[in-house]
Structures
1.
Amino acid sequence: MNSGYLHSVSSIISHPLLEEYPALWASTQPPLRRLIMARDHHIFMHGDTASSLWLVISGWVKLIRQTPDGKESVVGLCTDGDMFGEAALFAHANYPYTAQVIGNDTELVAMPSATIRDMIAKDPSLSARIMALLNERTGQAQLKLEQQSTMSAAQRLGCFLIRLCQTQASGERLLRIPVEKHILASYLGMKPETLSRSQHQLKSVHVTVDGHEVMVNDIEKLRQFVCNSCSQSGSCDAEEALG
Amino acid sequence: MNSGYLHSVSSIISHPLLEEYPALWASTQPPLRRLIMARDHHIFMHGDTASSLWLVISGWVKLIRQTPDGKESVVGLCTDGDMFGEAALFAHANYPYTAQVIGNDTELVAMPSATIRDMIAKDPSLSARIMALLNERTGQAQLKLEQQSTMSAAQRLGCFLIRLCQTQASGERLLRIPVEKHILASYLGMKPETLSRSQHQLKSVHVTVDGHEVMVNDIEKLRQFVCNSCSQSGSCDAEEALG
């Protein structure tokens, strides 16, 4: 486990939580671990002791779970700036999913559970920031749940793409999404053939898919197609960029 | 708003968070408000300033949202022991849904936002407890999302009933669920006619529905029908009672 290349954290690492709380890594002995992991590497398994909180610096990680009767579901797809393994914030907790690298050379930072819990106990502003992150996470999961009934499959795929465009509100954007079709379909709560149909439908709003590359030719047009069927319209992270 | 009958908090109020942190209400001037609200009363509206964190002492509350194109979705159904309005934990936040009473004489406790944020800043153990609650909420939303693809509609209804049985692991239980069919269906992510079919299917595991009363004749049998298709099988709150 964690057999990726180990580096000490360098100053080039950029993640909102580390930028706001430089003491988070400065105070740790040994320093927070920076890891570069190859595709398919298992970061941790469902049920493992939650020993670290993880930040994605660059790349892609899938979070998966299995049911006793053998169904697998993708409960998360994490990329640049995302956090996973929040169970590490709590004593004696286990990870509630398996985390596996899906992008080549994915760069991660692991924050040891004991260190971060100690810092949270000492710094009320950090605990407030972490609570806000947890609350945001709940909001995202609830919204995804709601969108299963208020949005078409093509709109849900469009929403996923808008989030990847992050703060960019208009113009064009080329996205690289090295995620296999059945993984992305499971994450979006649809069958692979529905995902294919949805990709085709998005052509009408100038989105073209070529393998793992997705070209969003007109972000504003895609928003018009998607956001009218979303109760967060006007207040989601992606839309705040609109000001 | 909040036109329910106002009472000061009496010692008979029972909620885990209040039991663990009696100082939460003891320290507040004026005391935490205890409210008994009638059916259909709007507790707050989507977008209102999040001025209080709410606890359900007894009764039922629905949390709903609307999309710009007019679709309504039920994002939460809260009953005894549930918490809602977590946005109040954060400065300058708004409620991300409308909360409305659906059970007659629903008893609530409102914890003023400023008070609870002040206490969290002073008491690291309270902040850890609140973080754990927020994390649990995220886990529940993610699990519900996953169950949309791993479980049948009848299993999802069964899971909802098992949660209402709380810590009871076997034997029978009579549940009173004063929730209209279209509301419950929306919450469970299915159409009203699918909910009717699911109720019918649960007869085979000895669950009988009579209006708003649901008789679970054999909790263990219902668990066998439901939990094998759930990745949390063996570790969900309801199952911990099994020891």
2.
Amino acid sequence: MAEEYAMDKGTGLIGFDLGATKMMAVLFDEDHRVVAREKARSKDGNGKTPVSRLVETIEQCLKDAEVEPKALKAVGIGVPGAVDRARGVVISAPNLGWENVEIEEKLEKALGVPVIVENDVNLGTYGEYRVGAARKFDHLLGIFPGTGVGGGLILDGRLYGGSTGMAGEIGHMILDRHGPLCGCGRYGCLEAYASRVAIAREAAAAALRGQAPALLEECGTDLTNIKSGAIARSIKSGDEAVEKIVRRAARMLGVAAANAVNLLSPEAVLLGGGLVEAMPALFSDEVEKAIRNQAFPALSRSVKVVVATLGDDAVATGAALFAEEMLRAKKEEKKS
Amino acid sequence: MAEEYAMDKGTGLIGFDLGATKMMAVLFDEDHRVVAREKARSKDGNGKTPVSRLVETIEQCLKDAEVEPKALKAVGIGVPGAVDRARGVVISAPNLGWENVEIEEKLEKALGVPVIVENDVNLGTYGEYRVGAARKFDHLLGIFPGTGVGGGLILDGRLYGGSTGMAGEIGHMILDRHGPLCGCGRYGCLEAYASRVAIAREAAAAALRGQAPALLEECGTDLTNIKSGAIARSIKSGDEAVEKIVRRAARMLGVAAANAVNLLSPEAVLLGGGLVEAMPALFSDEVEKAIRNQAFPALSRSVKVVVATLGDDAVATGAALFAEEMLRAKKEEKKS
């Protein structure tokens, strides 16, 4: 298929999902259809992620589709960390070992097309808002529990970054100052209850106590082995302790969502990420219940809870669409 | 002075602060200078607040200033409750006994000028943003601890209401699900820690235990008597237990503010209301410390904590300026 594809100059979009372990470039045509995908490991033999690695992956993606770089209109990059979008700089992405990487400038020089960089969860939220589960919800809160718990905000139809561009950190909302230790060094953040790491921590202890036989058999008691799919399978196999653990995590996620509903009055709360994909009904039920019970009726009554549908493509899709939108906005600004 | 005042047709503004016990109409000229003020009790002999009472107070204010109603451009009303601004309806203001009051329509009919209604804390925040302590902070979170704890948001330079118009309810952010009972029926909301009622509850117990002699002497142990000024005086007189209680309340307010900073990345947090006015340094110190310690450095580093300066005029000022701004926006919309 790919070799028959002809793309007009300045019409294609690359959405790039730069994860801590894997990276993926997706090429879209002007109607936002996927033309090609290219995956690679994020880290080289030395455990580093040089920008050249992103360039190579994008070039390979274009090559596979037999598309010239000049066919591109824009490239959007989603990064797991704090991003200064206005300056095009990744302030900090600890899992990549990145600090103050001027990624926009470097990529623009290498590719010769406009590049936009944003936080990956923000772009996942934006992708679901534009073409996924959250279409038309102009006031939207996205929550993505994974290794951490990321958040994204659409306010008045626009991706919201606040004064620094880095808004949306719902994962570090403190829900109980006497709660468990969080990766950020504080206690009782949402992430310390509802991330995959937090759930794996509790589930491993249950397995060790003999209360989660199915999980014990599949994963042992090593946190590293306890992934979203295994957690879901353990619950299906009847590990009640694991179900209790995950429901509690989902409830805490719901409390954080309820707090955000009271503060922001969104139309919808979007849930996504590996854990939610593995157990969509459990998460959306608990979050919906928590919002109904914990937020103000006038604010919560009409809030929809939706589950992400773009899966692994969410960030890349959001990145491509957001890059296109930013380019359009910039052009309009110049006109006026 | 007032009788010499001449106001051109369609230039004046009325800002109205409808409180649970007192109401106040303030007449501003086109340069936003105060021309006259009229105060009244909010409730009539039957404990009711009919809309006619607002009309009378506004008319008296105009009469005192010898200004004709036709000199008015707009009237803005601040109400202690949930407001549907788009429809001009007070959904619920429990302290006034109001439910679904179509205040805009009623007042427009009575006064013959455009009327805008909004939540009082939103307008207090807007007033401080336009002409008070928070000038130029286009991303602003206002927190006003009082009988309850109200909040207001300025995002991208506009008063933010979210999808229902009722955003900003930071007072019901749950900080500890095992915390004290809140007036809303849930446990551990910010309001259950940091409202005047919550502080009075703790302080009265300290007084009863003999740990707050100055407070005991001035107020006894009746919560009703323990107002903001008395709390401040008790601390000044050396009631260490009361200082501990208020500092803890301020710290919890800081935790809620830090959570909101992580979510919204504002430029500034504005503190106002009776408690803060009585103890500005204590509150701003504790809130600033909490934000520095509890929020993400990248988001909190540049956040300013400011204390409201408009005092009793904040809501009326915000109401007048907001009504003018809404009118201007409406006219522009019609043009385009």
3.
Amino acid sequence: MKHILAATALTLALPAMAQEAEEPVTPSSVVAKASAEEWTTIAAEDLLVMELAPDARGNPRTVVIHLIPPPFSQPWVENIRVLASAHWWDGTSVYRVQDSYVVQWGDATEEKPLPEGVVSPISTFDIDPLGPLGALILALGDTTRELPELCLTEHPNSRTACRDFTSPTNYLVGSADYEDWSDGWPFASNLDQVWPIHCYGHIGVARDYAPDTGTGAELYTIIGQPQRHMDRNLAVVGRVIEGMEHLSSLPRGSGELGFYTDEEADLRTPIISVRLGSELPHPPTFEYLNTRSESFATYVQVRANRNDAFYTVPAGGVDVCSVQVPVRRVAE
Amino acid sequence: MKHILAATALTLALPAMAQEAEEPVTPSSVVAKASAEEWTTIAAEDLLVMELAPDARGNPRTVVIHLIPPPFSQPWVENIRVLASAHWWDGTSVYRVQDSYVVQWGDATEEKPLPEGVVSPISTFDIDPLGPLGALILALGDTTRELPELCLTEHPNSRTACRDFTSPTNYLVGSADYEDWSDGWPFASNLDQVWPIHCYGHIGVARDYAPDTGTGAELYTIIGQPQRHMDRNLAVVGRVIEGMEHLSSLPRGSGELGFYTDEEADLRTPIISVRLGSELPHPPTFEYLNTRSESFATYVQVRANRNDAFYTVPAGGVDVCSVQVPVRRVAE
């Protein structure tokens, strides 16, 4: 089975079963061997469960979202909790699908009143609610304290030294000095500022021109290569942890920027409901691999230097967004 | 129209109409103002036109591919010309769609005989057919000779100086010292080697374990963030220049690695035909923006530092794959 062999080595998927000891070390095998205490449970109040209308075959389409924790984007996340509690998204739709960019949803009519108290926060997107010292502590990130050999936070001037280890050239995004993870979430920093970044499946808040910052009622998720020019210009509020394929495979809109035109309004995907996990009688349980864990450190290293049977030349580096934090559903 | 406003500023699309002089400078406006002589026509023999079965609404689905020019991956490109001339792909299918990774097509049965002479080339993927001096010349790229202010090819050690201009931190991929474009195609180099890279919509050759290098009969295209670990391990042979949405929006396969399972074999998309442009009575005409042109240089700079009305904080850098080389269809 030529294709299967080739494809197996290409995988980004995380198999649920443990790898056998004889098999080569892959990102999947590292995750499979992580110990139970290296996984962190996502609180039900940090989950959003979005039920789309069933697909053409009648299959259900459920999208599960993990809301970003403090200190990032909290004013918008609070709005989202209010909107979800008010069942505001019920009956709205996915109304924009732009190839290699974003899928966007909310109220296509732009006339649905918002619940009381939901306004665009007066805030910037590079958030330092902890003060300069707090920002510095956050900026140290998770892996720097556990992974000196990766030297992710080396200043660019000393990057050549770092490259002797894992060549983290690609950890650098835009004008950031470095990136790292904090409590399961990737961020970038230039030591003055710290900000959450856009990766595939991450969710942000659509907005009008500044000073508008958006409310969180209209949301988008990234379905192509994440664009660094979005960082610090739009609020990152969460990420899709299950069901991403229900959004990324939707037909592209033929209108400007991927909006469905009036003639193709039937392509809009109805949103049946959006609920906070804490509102559900039986919320699903998800865990993410602690980004301070030893297994996560190994996972990053293996991702940056794939050398199992399929690979001849290790990349020697990996984009921070290519290191998707492993998430798994826990059986009920 | 709040959403439209927000979306307009988010655009990656290239409008066909020229921008008015009063409008802010955007990547689109730069491309719209490029002069006629800055565009290069793609030869008909470098085009592949793939006709998929019509969609559920009966709309045609045509995918146009630009084959990569010398010196990159030429043994595979020659195989592809032979396969297309033999009409080998007619009646095959798109049989694998893995979310955020690849769409793959060819012969799902793995039993279709290949035309005579089509074998896996004995080659590496970091190609230097010109010898060390030629590699160095190629490695200098297009923009370095035209864009000293971008200092794309500065050695990493002097990167801080570069950052005074456009902070090209994100031009660095994996263990490459730098990236640039050569005759319209992005590549990476470490001065010893030069290699083409995987970007969104780029097409590569599926293969078995080394020393197999694939023939070009089974092809994939990138539908998510491009992964640097694919570079130098798989042959890059072209890119989709029109109709990418017909591949990226296909339903994801539920089998391992996105292969359609036997139960969902009907989800495979039939390939009606694949033809070289030179075999068509009326081939379409496409042009790309010359990567040595002044407009391309400006385009890169604006991409790296979006500062039109929507953006408050310029990124100060851009991933080489986020600088998609502009391509346009010429009216017949």
